[in-house]
Design brief:
With 158 residues, this protein is mainly beta. It has one domain. It has 1 helix and 8 strands; from the N terminus they run αββββββββ. Strands 1-2-3-4-5-6-7-8 form an 8-stranded antiparallel barrel. The protein is elongated. It starts with a helix and ends in an 8-residue tail after the last strand.
Length: 158
């Protein structure tokens, strides 16, 4: 049920952009993302992102899919993650601005707040709520700190 709700939310965000005819090369960014998170352990993160409605509204939306990688209890683990982020005043693209984000994994839901530097570097803090347990892994819950680097492939200065 929770995955159906998440899929519905993602479809609504993307379809809103397509329905308004705003999906042009100058109002969205996409590319790879890399990062680090500390929540019940150290995680390396790698994935991809799409930042929508850039410059069109006071809130721009980022959807990202990541693989969280960790080595714990003598095993290497990869945990999939989907994140939905709302950047406030992201259209400025030259300032730092706040964001709110929620990350979903099969084991936690983690709401976060943070500060982004031109939507390229994100610093976030949040709290993870356990929804499931991973075998051979300590519980993933509690406070989280993260830093991420978004590398847009279609960024133009002009």
């Amino acid at each position: 049920m929770k995955y159906k709700l998440l899929a519905l939310l993602l479809i609504l965000l993307v379809s809103k952009t397509f329905a308004q005819g705003k999906f042009k090369n100058d109002n969205f960014l996409f590319g790879p993302t890399i990062g680090y998170a500390n929540q019940a352990g150290n995680f390396g993160k790698i994935g991809g992102f799409v930042l929508l409605d850039l410059g069109e509204n006071t809130i721009s939306y980022k959807i990202d899919a990541n693989a969280n990688m960790a080595y714990m209890r003598d095993n290497f683990h990869v945990i999939p993650e989907i994140g939905v982020t709302g950047y406030i005043n992201a259209g400025e693209l030259i300032y730092s601005f706040p964001f709110i984000e929620t990350e979903f994994t099969p084991y936690t839901i983690t709401p976060k707040v943070g500060l982004s530097l031109a939507s390229f570097i994100d610093f976030g803090i949040g709290y993870g709520f356990k929804i499931n347990e991973k075998k051979d892994f300590k519980p993933i819950k509690g406070f989280q700190f993260s830093v991420g680097l978004n590398l847009p492939l279609n960024f133009n200065i002009y």
